[in-house]
Design brief:
Chains A, B: This is AcrR family transcriptional regulator. Two copies of one chain form a homodimer. The first copy, chain A, contains nine helices and no strands. With 222 residues, chain A is an all-alpha fold. The structure holds a DNA duplex (19 and 19 nucleotides).
DNA sequence: ACCTGAACACCGTTCAAGT
DNA sequence: ACCTGAACACCGTTCAAGT
């Protein structure tokens, strides 16, 4: 009775399975951060001892890389019905949205080493979109690298910001500005005061500008 | 005598200080990866118990964020003598080089929350370069975000690759290709076989292409 | 086939004690 | 002022034992 508090399963306890373990792990990482996702806590949340989890995942690394593949499964694939540019624009926005919902995903190391099926599928469809638009193999590699580097890097910068809501941003910027030696860093102070502290400022709004810059540049490559 | 094996100080033991602690921590992270940088191991390397380190750093978080600031100090600042584009091009290449020498630096969370003096100085000088080139405050913010997102993301993708040398790349690509269901992922297979397995392929070579794409795009914004 | 309890070899960090 | 030894509350993971 005391053991079951986590999930709130009312009737009989749900039989553990890999999908349930993954979903619960993702929920914990989303809510409390990846650093608080421990095998013991995950077990507790599922009403089970930590050691039971090893019947469903090989180890914590297996758990983490599978979680990343689950995030890739959430990304909208480029559509065959759109032209290449708007197809890739939509999937890029969807990609950033997924990384924004699951900020821990970009920090999981080793997920590039052995990508899961959803990740492979996603990459294959993006490459297909470039190739069918007329990009050569070499140019496709260049384009893919440039576009996804931007998306990953944007998500990383967004994640590293110490604020999310507009109110938090304003409050944080005020504190930073107060601490900042403005004599020494005048340009940084100016940007903070006159851009970040502007009403309605939201870093996420910067995303489409850089995205279009890159997509326009890729179009020029064609 | 047994205790001093790590550093190899011959004569009297070197007095511990913050700079020595930071440099040794960076050396460990560079050589063995950030996951093997523990307070106990760092102490051992310095010929001291782990607890002594707390006389020089507040805690492990303080250590990590200070290490990141030391990496920023290695980046070449944009020169006043170059035009804005080549000044930012040089510092961008230098930025990627620094992240390539210290791949753990992009994974340190919380380093964006309270940036160190070298980081602030670096940001200030990059913003200054945009402003003096004629970018408005708003356009400077857009440009800065786009450019550094690309650099961070490229470094992250580069780091997540399971190979570094050309030989490793070819060997790894062969293995990946053999495992890959080529019927299911034909475009990914094609790119791997005909681009990655090309003699002389090196992912790092992709960097300048995306960089110039972005810098040219920014120039068009002016 | 799945779950558990105890144990192992680790972590970061504290605190009182030494010099 | 700096360093140490013991201890605390954690980790991931193993293994034999239970059902």
């Amino acid at each position: 009775m005391a053991k079951r508090s986590g999930t709130g399963d009312v009737s009989s306890r749900v039989r553990l399975n890999r999908a349930l373990v993954l979903d619960t792990a993702i929920a914990i990482a989303d809510e409390s951060g990846i650093e608080s996702l421990t095998m013991r806590k995950l077990g507790e949340q599922l009403g089970v001892e930590a050691m039971s989890l090893y019947n469903h995942v090989a180890n914590k690394d297996d758990l983490l890389t599978s979680m990343v593949d689950a995030v890739f499964a959430e990304i909208e694939l480029p559509s065959h019905n759109d032209d290449w540019k708007s197809a890739l624009r939509k999937r890029s926005v969807s990609f950033r949205d997924a990384l924004s919902r699951h900020p821990w995903a970009i920090g999981v190391k080793g997920s590039g080493t052995n990508p899961g099926p959803a990740t492979l599928r996603h990459h294959d469809r993006v490459i297909a979109t470039f190739r069918n638009a007329g990009f050569s193999i070499t140019m496709t590699a260049h384009a893919f690298s440039a576009l996804d580097s931007y998306i990953y890097g944007f998500a990383m910068q967004e994640q590293s910001l110490p604020f999310t809501t507009e109110e938090e941003t304003a409050a944080m910027a005020h504190i930073l500005l107060a601490q900042l030696p403005t004599k020494e860093f005048p340009y940084l102070a100016e940007l903070t005061a006159q851009h970040v502290l502007t009403p309605g400022y939201n870093y996420a709004d910067e995303f489409p500008l850089g995205l279009d810059l890159i997509l326009d540049g890729l179009e020029r490559w064609l």
